[in-house]
Specification:
Number of strands: 6
Largest sheet: 3 strands, antiparallel
Order of helices and strands: EEEEEEH
Distance between the termini: 21 Å
Radius of gyration: 12 Å
Mean pLDDT: 89
Helix content: under 10%
Oligomer: single chain
Number of domains: 1
Length: 68
Protein backbone atom coordinates (compact mmCIF):
# COMPACT_ATOMS: atom_id res chain seq x y z
CA UNK A 1 0.00 0.00 0.00
CA UNK A 2 1.23 3.46 -0.86
CA UNK A 3 -0.11 6.95 -1.54
CA UNK A 4 0.86 9.73 -3.95
CA UNK A 5 0.69 13.51 -4.06
CA UNK A 6 -1.11 13.24 -7.42
CA UNK A 7 -4.30 11.70 -8.83
CA UNK A 8 -3.98 8.49 -10.83
CA UNK A 9 -6.38 6.89 -13.32
CA UNK A 10 -5.83 3.24 -14.30
CA UNK A 11 -7.51 1.72 -17.39
CA UNK A 12 -7.18 -2.02 -18.17
CA UNK A 13 -6.59 -2.83 -21.85
CA UNK A 14 -6.25 -6.60 -21.39
CA UNK A 15 -5.83 -9.03 -18.51
CA UNK A 16 -7.01 -8.61 -14.91
CA UNK A 17 -5.91 -6.41 -12.01
CA UNK A 18 -6.86 -6.29 -8.35
CA UNK A 19 -6.63 -2.86 -6.75
CA UNK A 20 -7.11 -1.91 -3.14
CA UNK A 21 -8.24 1.70 -2.66
CA UNK A 22 -8.45 2.58 1.00
CA UNK A 23 -10.44 -0.36 2.34
CA UNK A 24 -12.21 -1.19 -0.95
CA UNK A 25 -10.98 -4.18 -3.03
CA UNK A 26 -11.85 -4.09 -6.74
CA UNK A 27 -11.05 -6.51 -9.58
CA UNK A 28 -10.73 -4.92 -13.01
CA UNK A 29 -10.85 -6.49 -16.47
CA UNK A 30 -10.59 -5.18 -20.04
CA UNK A 31 -12.39 -1.84 -20.40
CA UNK A 32 -12.57 -1.21 -16.63
CA UNK A 33 -11.02 1.85 -14.98
CA UNK A 34 -10.40 3.09 -11.46
CA UNK A 35 -9.15 6.26 -9.78
CA UNK A 36 -6.55 6.49 -7.05
CA UNK A 37 -7.16 9.82 -5.35
CA UNK A 38 -4.35 11.98 -4.06
CA UNK A 39 -3.21 10.90 -0.60
CA UNK A 40 -5.37 7.71 -0.49
CA UNK A 41 -3.54 4.46 0.28
CA UNK A 42 -3.79 2.02 -2.62
CA UNK A 43 -2.13 -0.95 -4.30
CA UNK A 44 -2.35 -2.68 -7.69
CA UNK A 45 -1.71 -6.39 -8.35
CA UNK A 46 -1.75 -8.13 -11.73
CA UNK A 47 -3.80 -11.33 -11.51
CA UNK A 48 -2.53 -12.45 -14.94
CA UNK A 49 -0.51 -10.94 -17.79
CA UNK A 50 -2.03 -7.47 -18.05
CA UNK A 51 -1.70 -4.36 -20.18
CA UNK A 52 -2.98 -1.15 -18.57
CA UNK A 53 -2.68 2.58 -19.04
CA UNK A 54 -2.06 4.90 -16.12
CA UNK A 55 -2.50 8.68 -16.26
CA UNK A 56 -1.23 10.87 -13.43
CA UNK A 57 -2.19 14.49 -12.77
CA UNK A 58 -0.49 16.70 -12.09
CA UNK A 59 2.49 15.02 -13.70
CA UNK A 60 4.74 13.79 -10.88
CA UNK A 61 8.52 14.17 -10.76
CA UNK A 62 9.64 11.15 -12.82
CA UNK A 63 12.76 10.67 -10.68
CA UNK A 64 10.50 10.12 -7.69
CA UNK A 65 8.19 7.71 -9.58
CA UNK A 66 10.92 5.59 -11.18
CA UNK A 67 13.65 6.03 -8.59
CA UNK A 68 16.13 7.26 -11.21
Amino acid sequence: MHAHSHESLVHVVSGRLRTVIGEQVVELGPGDSCRHSQGVLHSVEALEDTVFLEAKAPVPDLQTVFGA
